[in-house]
Specification:
The chain has a domain of about 100 residues: Orthogonal Bundle (Helicase, Ruva Protein, domain 3). The protein has 13 helices and eleven strands. With about 325 residues, the protein is α/β, with parallel strands linked by helices. The termini are far apart. The strands form four sheets. It has a five-stranded parallel beta sheet with strand order 3-6-9-1-10. The chain has a two-stranded parallel ribbon with strand order 2-11. The protein has a two-stranded antiparallel sheet with strand order 4-5.
């Protein structure tokens, strides 16, 4: 009798090759910050969405575009501005005189990879238009629900809140982002390399896709199969619960945050070539997954991110790690 079991080793080798190719391709354009690339890919493979935040000019849009171009998938970019309306993103139902019925004209959100550029320059009303899409992968217009393509991934960029012309993201919107990632400045050598690389043409212009949407869907399915032992799960839950009892926090991380943290840890493990989650996967993701989901009495949704990150990092540093 022939063995009909799937070739697990072969699948693992193929998954690792796809991940390596994706990391290398994005890293060939977005230079010098591999941890940032890993965090963005963690969000993608975990089936979540990623918010990139930093000052203008550090490569947020370049990172988003390089990831989109590395995937042979449908890609749309929406530049968020104060006059942008929800219908400009979602679409609108238009009356067709010939048929005597309303016909839905889908907006740019009907894509596999959506770059929401400078998302906090739009009004909260327009920002909130993304809530259903990011949570349920569908859009409802005139009481009719329209499913979005699979996979569906939102990578948004935003400038710091104190910059002119920005609106704070509502807490419910922030909670829909699995990870919030800061870019940071490149090193001197990396900055020099970036300048040299763009003297003739931008590296994005020659970047080619190395994975398909089907490949990403397969990797997302593989993430769910990564083993999460009870001891590691208990550690993740302990981290989340500490945010709910911390004396400087008035709002802790929600159960959605617990799901996000564990799923992101599974994706991080797969990126590292493992079929099981380590406590370090959870600990290393505590700040990008949890810090934007907590609130304190002295800082609100419109600021205090440095303090939130410090508190979550302090919790992760002092909480006992299982062996």
């Amino acid at each position: 009798m022939s063995d009909s079991r799937p070739d697990t080793a072969s699948d693992s080798t193929k998954q690792h090759a796809l991940i390596q190719a994706l990391q290398k391709n994005v890293g060939s354009v977005f230079l010098g910050r591999p941890e940032v690339v890993r965090h963005v890919l963690t969000g993608l493979l975990a089936g979540g969405h990623v918010l990139l935040e930093d000052v203008p000019g550090v490569g947020k849009t370049v990172l988003a575009k390089s990831l989109a171009r590395s995937m042979h998938a449908d890609f749309r970019r929406v530049q968020f501005t104060p006059d942008l309306l929800p219908s400009d993103i979602l679409g609108v139902a238009i009356y067709d005189q010939a048929s005597g019925a309303f016909e839905f004209k889908p907006g740019p959100i009907f894509t596999q990879v959506l770059l929401a550029d400078e998302i906090n320059r739009a009004t909260p009303r327009t920002q909130s238009a993304l809530l259903e899409a990011m949570n349920d992968a569908q859009v409802s217009v005139d009481r009719v629900s329209h499913p979005l393509p699979e996979p569906f991934f939102v990578i948004a960029t935003q400038n710091p809140y104190e910059f002119e012309g920005t609106y704070p993201l509502p807490e419910s919107q922030l909670d829909r982002f699995m990870l919030r990632v800061r870019i940071g400045y490149p090193s001197l050598q990396d900055e020099k390399t970036v300048i040299r690389a763009q003297q003739q043409q931008h590296p994005l212009e020659s970047l080619e896709a190395v994975v398909t949407g089907a490949d990403i869907a397969g990797l997302q399915a593989a993430v769910r199969a990564v083993r999460l032992d009870d001891a590691v799960l208990d550690y993740a839950l302990a981290l989340v619960r500490e945010t709910r009892t911390h004396k400087q926090l008035t709002v802790g991380a929600s159960p959605r945050a617990s799901i996000a943290l564990t799923r992101a840890a599974q994706a991080h493990a797969l990126l590292a070539g493992r079929s099981y989650v380590l406590p370090d996967d959870v600990k290393g993701l505590a700040v990008p997954v949890l810090a934007h989901r907590v609130l304190g009495g002295e800082f609100g949704a419109d600021g205090g991110m440095d303090e939130r990150e410090r508190i979550v990092k302090d919790i992760a540093e002092h909480l006992e790690v299982p062996i």
